[in-house]
Design goal:
Elements: H1 6-31, H2 37-44, H3 48-64, H4 66-76, H5 78-95, H6 102-130, H7 136-165, H8 167-184, H9 203-210, H10 215-242, H11 249-255, H12 261-267, H13 269-276, H14 279-293, H15 302-330, H16 336-365, H17 367-388
Length: 396
């Protein structure tokens, strides 16, 4: 490993801190409106599915953009994409304060959503370049952790701040954090510009990947899992209001505390793999836990739902953290970027449907219909996994 001067290492870690701050800001921006759904809905007179799209629009962009973000990075450089997208996110966030109607709010959220995939792709590429001669694995683990931190900060901190200051100042204030990140990244490394480094993906390439045995089924399982995860996150505020506990944004924010179980789950994955002996068995167990714990949503009690979210999150995390490795193992002959781009696109497309379909069912037919939709998706995912279990390869 090459030796680096203390000043160089200091610059690397300062830039790395800025990159992690961008990741935290992005996920905070994405999920912060969730504990504010009731306030936004009451102010603008929108229904559940319309309000949920303030988050769903981000998933929609993440479903269609990952395959193309790399091409822009290769043409104009990751530093330009990083600073440009973060500056745009800072301005669009600040402008949220002045949204006078729901259409204006959605226009700003849609603008933010367009830049988010490019910011995240630039962050990943910058980390890979910064730590190519250092501890890249630990650096990427820090990035994944920053995603969790941002998600939790958006939901918990967003709920508390919205109750203290209102939803407008809270969402606009995230722009200040983006501005700080831009200042920290002014000396981020430049990348070489190779205009032919990425080519347009073709339907033939995608079809070849999906013809790989087991891959379509595994992608379906991931999509079903995130369908329910996104639905629960979007519907919690409305369900709490129905149960007589939805007037406090801070209390709504606390309902998302169960999402923190991802930190615990990541630390015990090694033990779980030894316990279940094979990765396919572990994934099936995680899917079963997810499906069974989702029954807590059928109970009209706030604290039963609160407890159930911990187990649901644990099951979803176990499934989600293991399936990508199996998909990459099965598709070794194909381009890594295209495989993972397609995987992420399908994953987030499941989130888009999860934001819309159960919300529509809840609005038109009530909570039982929304719950039935979510539980049906989890049952489908479990049955698919059980049919595949004997054909899935082992991963480390």
């Amino acid at each position: 490993m090459p030796q680096h001067s203390p000043s160089h290492l200091k610059s690397v870690y300062r830039t790395y801190a800025g990159l992690l701050l961008v990741s935290v800001c992005v996920y905070c921006l994405m999920y912060a409106p969730q504990p504010m759904f009731n306030s936004i809905s009451a102010e603008f007179g929108t229904d559940k599915s319309q309000t949920a799209m303030t988050v769903g629009v981000f998933m929609l962009c993440l479903a269609v953009t990952p395959l193309f973000a790399g091409m822009l990075l290769s043409r104009i450089g990751q530093r330009a994409v990083l600073l440009g997208s973060c500056s745009a996110l800072a301005c669009a966030s600040a402008a949220t304060w002045f949204a006078t109607d729901f259409a204006g709010l959605m226009a700003l959220r849609s603008l933010q959503a367009v830049f988010v995939p490019f910011a995240l792709t630039a962050v990943m590429s910058s980390i890979a370049q910064l730590f190519r001669h250092l501890a890249l694995g630990r650096a990427l683990a820090g990035y994944v952790t920053s995603n969790l931190v941002g998600s939790m900060l958006g939901r918990l901190g967003g709920g508390w701040c919205a109750e203290l200051f209102g939803w407008r100042p809270t969402l606009a204030g995230i722009g200040i954090l983006f501005a700080v990140a831009v200042l920290m990244l002014l000396d981020a490394p430049k990348s070489s510009q190779g205009s032919h480094a990425h080519r347009m993906p073709s339907f033939r390439d995608a079809a070849a990947i999906f013809r790989t045995p087991c891959v379509p089924s595994l992608v379906l399982v991931e999509g079903c899992g995130f369908f329910v995860f996104a639905a629960v996150g979007s519907l919690i505020p409305f369900r709490m209001l129905e149960l007589g506990q939805g007037d406090s944004e801070s209390l709504i924010g606390l309902m998302y505390l169960g999402y923190m179980v991802g930190f615990f789950a990541s630390s015990c994955l090694g033990f779980l793999k030894r316990l279940f002996r094979t990765t396919p068995r572990l994934i099936a167990a995680g899917s079963l836990l997810y499906m069974l714990s989702a029954a807590s949503m059928a109970v009209p009690n706030l604290w039963v739902l609160f407890s159930g979210i911990f187990f649901m999150t644990f099951g979803e995390f176990v499934v989600h953290v293991n399936i990508p490795g199996i998909v990459n193992r099965l598709t070794e002959r194909h381009d890594r970027g295209m495989v993972n781009g397609l995987f992420l696109s399908c994953y987030y497309f499941g989130g888009v449907l999860g934001t819309l379909v159960p919300s529509f069912a809840y609005t038109r037919f009530g909570w039982t219909a929304a719950y039935g939709t979510m539980q049906a998706m989890l049952c489908l995912a479990f049955l698919v996994l059980m049919s595949l279990r004997a054909r899935l390869p082992e991963t480390r």
